[in-house]
Write a structure and sequence with these properties.
Length: 268
Amino acid sequence: MKKVRIYCEGKVGSHDYDILNKVLGDLRPNIDIKPLGGKFGAKAIMDFYENANGSAAKSDFYLWFRDRDFDYPVPDVVRLTIDKHIYSSYRTTIENYLLDTSVFWQYAVENNISGLQTIEEVEGLFYKSAMDIREYQAVRHALGKMHCGVSFKTRWTGKDGDLPQFLDLENCESEGWNLICQAKNETNDWTESGYQAEVQSFLALFDDGFMKAGDYLVWFQGKDFASALCRNRPDFPMNDYYKFAKSVFDYTKFADLCELRKLVEDNI
């Protein structure tokens, strides 16, 4: 029997692990789902397991399924991004697969959460929360596009989901440019005007049609969006909602997760 291993971020019980169990769970025990913790250093750990000469841990087939984050551009069609043994989700983060208006509404009704008893109220909350972080997300995407091969982050807060105090374009652009300036000794290719042009290109993409279509659920960083929801509804039990969303999660609604499933099936 082939030894198949799927690496992921997080730990046992994390969103990454639990969603992979939904996608691949019935194929086990033929496959091993192995969490690697955080993204940084994960590739080195995977390479150690799989490429150490004579290692009994080596697999016949393996891959690392990870968040896209801002490291790869979003494809024109719903699919995984494949970089050797690294397979990145179509949506920006794993949380993006759990943040859904219909599931949110179902949870709110079952738990009698005031002000969220109709789908229109939920859609309004989602739309407002997305608009609140629209300019911040444009800056993060611009930084992600520019930081290819160079070490600087796409945020100036402590971690994803820690929203800046000020979310307006002027402040976000300024903070983003500061990050670039701190790394400018690594390249001379960046200019402030070029950076601002990248930000404007993403703002143009995130237009009224984009926002009303809910495409922010693909593009916006999931933890950031969840934090924006909680800013607007500080009483909402987000952690409990995530447990509910995972319990009813249907991976077949997402073409990239179906692609991942098929890929693993073909290699068992």
